[in-house]
Every structure is written in structure tokens, then in C-alpha cells.
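Run DUF1801 domain-containing protein through structure prediction, thanks.
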Amino acid sequence: MNKEISAYNSEQLPPDKAICKKLAQEIDKHLPDAESKIWHRHPVWFLNGNPIVGYSKLKDSLRLMFWSGQSFDEAGLLPEGSFKAAEIRYTDVKQINTDDLACWLAKSRQIQWDYKNIVKRKGVLERLPDTDK
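Sure, done. The structure for DUF1801 domain-containing protein is below.
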């Protein structure tokens, strides 16, 4: 696990620490080739420089966000923000359904919107070609 992410996880209170640890383990397991780092103060995983998935501590929960999640066509994720992101929130590690998470992570590899170049395109978000992997 990325040392910065491990440090982030360790700073959380026990219930959130368990959620963070589980999420990081599952993300690393299903996206082993992703680059992971602390980005805007939160753990985020990238494929080819494009943000894919990350999590952050909110006041009352821990939010797992998929940047292209609204395009997954999967139950369990709620729209987040004005672009294509979707999220799920956890308050207990037992709420994490690893089968759902594995499905979302597979889709996060396959279905991507090009957030990496959104500034260059002046706020226009374009879909990247789907991958077979």
C-alpha cells in the first residue's frame, strides 16, 4: 500500500480506519496497475493519469467515489456533483459489499471520462474509449 495512503488511514478514528483499510486493500487488489497517491488531501487511484476511484472522510461517514461512476449503470452508487462521478457512503466496515466493489472497480477500468484533460478542454468532459480489460 502507498505509504501516504497508509498514513492517511492510520490518522482516522477506529471505525473509519477499518473502512479505509478495507477499501484500500480491495482497490489495490482489483487495480494493481493503478497509481495511488494523496490527491487534494485524499487517497485517489489513477489509470494513465486519470482519476478513477478515491475515498474521503466526511463529517458523518466515509465516501467512496468513482469519477466515472454515473456511467456504470449499477445499483448502489448515487450521483455526486455536476460531472459523471458517483459515490457510496459507509459508516461501518461491515457495509462494504466486496462483490459490488469488485464490479464497480472493474467498470472503473473499462468506463472512463477524461478528467485528466478537463482543464485543457475548458470544463468539457469527454468519454474515453471503453477498454476490454
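Helices lie at 3-10, 14-30, 98-110.
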